[in-house]
Design goal:
The protein is of the alpha/beta class and 313 residues long. It folds into two domains: 39-249, P-loop containing nucleotide triphosphate hydrolases (Rossmann fold, 3-Layer(aba) Sandwich); 279-312. It contains 14 helices and seven strands. Strands 3-2-4-1-5-6-7 form a seven-stranded parallel β-sheet, with helices on both faces. Helix 10 (197-211) links the parallel strand 6 (186-189) and strand 7 (221-223). It is globular, with a radius of gyration of 21 Å. The protein starts with a helix and ends with a helix. Bound molecules: guanosine-5'-diphosphate and magnesium ion. Residues 57-58, 94, 143 line the site of magnesium ion.
Amino acid sequence: MNDIAAKVLEGDPRSIARLITHAENTSPLAASQMKKIHPYTGKAYVIGITGVMGSGKSTLIYEMTKEYRRQGLKVGIIAIDPTSPFSGGALLGDRIRMTELATDNGVFIRSMGTRGMLGGLASAVYDVVEILDASGKDIVLVETVGVGQAEVDVIKIADTTLVVLVPGLGDSIQTIKAGIMEIADIYVVNKADRSGVEQAVAELESLIDIACNDKDRKTPVLTTIAKQKKGILELVKEIENHKNYLKKTNRFQAKRRKRYEAELVEIIRKRLMNFIFDESTFKGKVESLIDQISKKEVDPYSAADEILGKILK
Ligand SMILES: Nc1nc2c(ncn2[C@@H]2O[C@H](COP(=O)(O)OP(=O)(O)O)[C@@H](O)[C@H]2O)c(=O)[nH]1
Ligand SMILES: [Mg+2]
């Protein structure tokens, strides 16, 4: 086995970081190494944490990580930051806050920018989850800001998804607009030290009564004060309850299948796009077809036939 995959399996942080970088850059080495590690994946439990900016997701993740470490579990964290176009440099604040964990070998933190959301990031996130899983992490936490469809799609890789809200600001209404209601497995009303908590919880509960799409399980609403480490243990227990529920009802396997389906489609999509738009001969062809479409010499459908016909023959 090539060094990098073998070292990832040993949990070596530098090799994990290197392979993630290769995956982000879709280098040929990434594909060969990803093939090697796949047989060793599937053990990590993936938790997605989404919600508006400033709701306390990173603070929650920090406290949850400390709790999981107390339980002897290894934790991988993927923080997706839409504000920075570059990975690595993003989420400096989060990184500083995480310093207590930075020296802990049982914790691996990676920030990613949303650069290339239309092409790059989505499949890179699947890779990063697989890499952290293969490296022996028991829990993988994925933080995204739940604002757009792309972020909602990313969070679909999670086994359990937490939607974090804060009292006031009519957050629950925003949530529905963003289509997040359907992906929430557990609602967390953080900043419960602020006023309006009861109202926020009541509002959410009534929305759940109307919109909850799982007949067998009512989506729970928890309150936390992440900054004061309050409600963390209860949250971790509720995630465990959800995991047990998924396993008992065979929904767990179905969820995983969905993730692999999405991953496979994403890899194929990305490769096809690269083939059509990056390969030198095709690129010229695409450019000239665009010119022809502009001049009404060809219509867009016939142009697509001309490109795809070469692949699908
Ligand atoms: N009052 C209060 N502030 C909190 C709580 N949890 C987090 N914060 C603060 O809210 C701000 C945003 O937190 P952060 O975790 O970065 O939010 P994120 O953008 O969702 O990741 C920070 O200043 C935190 O210290 C809480 O329970 N109560
Ligand atoms: Mg954050």
